[in-house]
Structure formats: structure tokens, C-alpha cells
Amino acid sequence: MNHDHALSAPTAPTAPKPPHARSAGATATACAPATRDGSTRCAVRRGGPAGPVRMAAASIALGAALALAAGASLAPAPALAQAGAAADASAMASGEVRRVDREAAKLTIRHGEIPHLEMPPMTMVFRVRDAALLEGLKEGDRIRFRAEKDGRQYVVVALKPE
Asked: What is 93-161's CATH number, 3.90.780.10, 2.40.50.320, 3.50.50.60, 3.30.70.1030?
């Protein structure tokens, strides 16, 4: 006689899942007992187990972003100033003054590559943000300058003789 069956608990026949519970990403969470007609009603949670996992991941990412932001604001001021100075120095381009138009606040410069503007070497006219930058400049002066794009024009915002 085979006693294996006596040791295991009898299992109840399982009712087929309702069609809406079989869709991808849906999990039945609670089923009521079978009704008179034999159908089973189940409450379906959409999104499966990925929903809580996604929320936890989003919470962790938000916490990390906040921690980074808080840490960055606590950095010593000299370190930030040095990093800013290095960025400004790398954004400075070299050039030669070809023409100074003080009345129109414009400067013609034959310059080398300007990487932050993705500009190759050329000679072009720049508007000058502050006309005071033009004081003492003359044709042939070698300069270091920083230019920025302002709408459709390029504007010199900083300038120093080399």
C-alpha cells in the first residue's frame, strides 16, 4: 500500500483564473469563493510586483539626488572658486585685435578656436557687452577674451591684454 498519499494534505481543485487576471503585469490579490454558477471573483492589482520596486527605486534616487545637492552646497568656498576660475580660464580664447569701433561698441578679432562656442579660428566682429572693455585697445593688440552667444550675436563679456 502506498502511504505517500496519506501524508500529503488533500488539495482543493483550483478554479481557472478570470480572463482579466491573466493579462501581463496583472496579479490576482484576493479571490472570493466560487459563486453558484461556479465563477470566481478576484480583485486584480495591475502592475504586479514591479510597482513597489519602482517606487522604492524612485525614492532611493530622489534621496541620493537630495544628498548630492546638500553635499555640494557644503563644499568649501575656495574649492568652488578654484573650479570656477579653471572653467573661466579654459573658456578664454586668444586673439588679435584687428579693429576697434568704440562708438558702436564692436571689436573685430582674429581669433583661434573657441571650444565652448564650437567655433573654428576666424576673423569676425563681436559686440562688446561693456564699452569700458575697449579702453586702451588698439589694432594689433594680443588679447585673451571670453565670448558668449546672445541670441544670434556673439558678445565679448571679458577681455584682458596678453
From this structure: 2.40.50.320
